[in-house]
Amino acid sequence: MPELRRDPFSRNWVILAPERARRPHPGDAPADGPQCPFCPGHESSTPEELWRLADEAGDWKVRVVRNRYPVLVPGPEPTAAPAAPTAEPDGPQDPGPGEPAGRRLFRAAAGTGSHEVVIESRSHGWDIPDGDDDAVADVLRACRDRTRALRARRHPGLVVPFRNHGPAAGTSMPHPHSQIIALPLVPPSRRRLLETARDHFERHGSSLYADVLDAELADGRRLVAVGGHAVALVPYAGRGPYETWILPRRPAASFADADDRELAETASLLRRTVTAVLSVLGPVSYNYVLANAPDGEEGVPWYSWQLTLVPRTAAGAGFELGTEMSITPVPPEDAAARLRAALPPRSPGDGGRGGPGGPGGPGRG
How far is CA 223 from CA 153, 244, 337, 361, in A? Predict the structure, then answer.
């Protein structure tokens, strides 16, 4: 059974998951063919299937299955809706002051939650730039639908869909896939982002995300591509070179609530941006993550979901480890200009989408 432990100094949580040691390493992962459990014809080799998108012939296009080597495992279903958040909604409550120091300092909880794998394509060598917009939208649709399903269970916590591509990004299986982890708590770093957004809303009466998006649309230098429903930009103070955000123009705190138009445009921007990143940087590893509001807080007006794309250009060193500060050698304005120049053409028929200065100019939509 995995276990959650809290660092008494930073109050951050870590997950002890011994089962993960058994997962394949990049050099040991099965190649295309009889050994790959994600390839067509090997559906019985995967754990329980949770979701499927089929084509007109009935063949699957995208599947979601349980992870064979999970970070977290399902726990008992709640018998009632969870209570309202307490003063510390980020994990189990501290023992009382009369408890031994070890119990007060060293907090732990059962590693319950969910860990799922989104098998993105029937093709073993597929990647985001290889697909058309519809194929990428199918992957994001799986993430949206499974986020909805996990959120509907009403466990307190956070649903985190993400994709690792390449050895430097942490991938272990070469067959194209992304993952979804449902945490039973809200990490303190995510809680701080929510508190910052709420503080801005209470002070100014407007969403921090909408205000930043308006400012970026007016400035233009850090924009990568602008559409009527979503915008891709390089953040003003990103954590690494060529980090790119895709933000919806209609505020919504959870990706589970993105409508089909927003999902389709996010997919198009993701495909084009990943293609541009690989064109500028070469065959670099990358991650992306879909940030959601915590379960039960998806209706708050001060937060917005976003897709964050992070190319793995360099590992952090001693300074970053000692300070948790990033050093970025490429100014975001320069990175955005290079990505704009490398963007592939829009797919036929998506004339409603545009680049900086094109359709869907300044404004929140």
Answer: 37, 9, 8, 11
Please report, rounded to a whole number, the percentage of residues in the chain having pLDDT higher than 70: 85
Q: What is the pLDDT of residue 154?
A: 67
Q: Which helix (H) or strand (E) element contains residue 202?
A: helix 188-204
Beta pairing, strands 3-6 & 286-291:
unpaired
Residues sharing a CB contact under 8 Å with residue 162, sequence separation 6 or more, in sequence order: 178, 179, 180, 181, 287, 288, 289, 290
Residues in the chain, overall count: 365
d(CA 47, CA 43): 9
Residue 81 confidence (pLDDT): 45
Please tell me the distance from the alpha carbon of residue 273 to that of residue 343, in angstroms, as a whole number.
7
Least confident of 31-40, 143-152, 306-315, 325-334: 31-40
CA dihedral 129, 131, 136, 137 (to 10 degrees): 140
129-to-126, 189, 241, 346 alpha-carbon distances in Å: 8, 31, 20, 12
Q: Tokens at residue 351, please?
A: 């004339």
Q: Following DSSP, what letter does each residue of 14-37 receive, concatenated?
A: EEE-GGGGGSPPGGGS--SSTT-T
Q: How confident is the model at residue 363 (pLDDT cuts 50, 70, 90)?
A: very low
Query: In what side-by-side order are the strands of the sheet with 49-54?
Result: 49-54, 60-66, 114-119, 177-183, 158-165, 286-291, 306-311, 244-248, 230-233, 223-227, 353-354
| Model confidence pLDDT, tens digit, residues 251-271 | 899 999 999 999 999 999 999
Please name the residue that has the structure tokens 């459990």: 37
**In which residue are the tokens 């290889």 written?**
130
Is residue 287 pLDDT above 70, yes or no? yes
Q: Is 256:306 a contact under the CB 8 Å cutoff?
A: no
Distance CA 9, CA 12 (A): 8
**Which of 184, 168, 171, 8 has the alpha carbon at shortest distance from 90?**
184
